[in-house]
Write a sequence for this structure.
């Protein structure tokens, strides 16, 4: 059994508290709507390409179904919700599942700031939709950097 000298004297519970948790990202699951697809594309870009070592994604559907593992991942974690409309389902489900939203985003806000980009498509976004997703992902990246203390490192 391996025991690190650094943590040898600490209790197991304390050691768990010292472990670095990843920022949890919960995107909208508005299937069939371009703004929901934008949120998921942005979340995938952040968790798979931009900040994979600092983030993990939890599908909204798991929270809706009451998945215990998904709910447990929210407790004590920094959580970013990405909603696709004014109903803010992702934000509400994080809160109802015992998590605390550190920062929330809405793809509608990105669209309002970039009205020249008209998103179309559901399974596959058009160029404008992908550009909106990229802009949203960059904002989420910044927040991840702030939450993990890496803002200067990734500037």
């Amino acid at each position: 059994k391996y025991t690190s000298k650094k943590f040898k004297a600490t209790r197991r519970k304390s050691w768990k508290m010292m472990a670095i948790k990843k920022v949890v990202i919960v995107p909208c699951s508005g299937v069939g709507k371009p703004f929901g697809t934008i949120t998921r594309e942005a979340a995938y870009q952040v968790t798979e390409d931009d900040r994979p070592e600092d983030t993990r994604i939890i599908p909204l559907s798991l929270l809706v179904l009451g998945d215990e593992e998904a709910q447990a991942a929210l407790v004590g974690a920094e959580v970013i919700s990405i909603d696709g409309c004014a109903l803010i389902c992702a934000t509400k489900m994080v809160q109802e599942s015992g998590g605390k939203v550190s920062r929330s985003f809405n793809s509608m806000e990105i669209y309002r700031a970039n009205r020249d980009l008209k998103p179309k498509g559901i399974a596959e976004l058009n160029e404008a939709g992908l550009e909106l997703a990229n802009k949203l992902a960059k904002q989420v990246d910044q927040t991840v950097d702030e939450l993990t203390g890496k803002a200067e490192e990734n500037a």
Notes: The longest helix spans residues 127-148. The mean pLDDT is 88. The beta strands are 23-27, 55-57, 79-83, 101-106. Helices lie at 12-18, 34-50, 60-64, 68-74, 89-96, 107-113, 127-148.
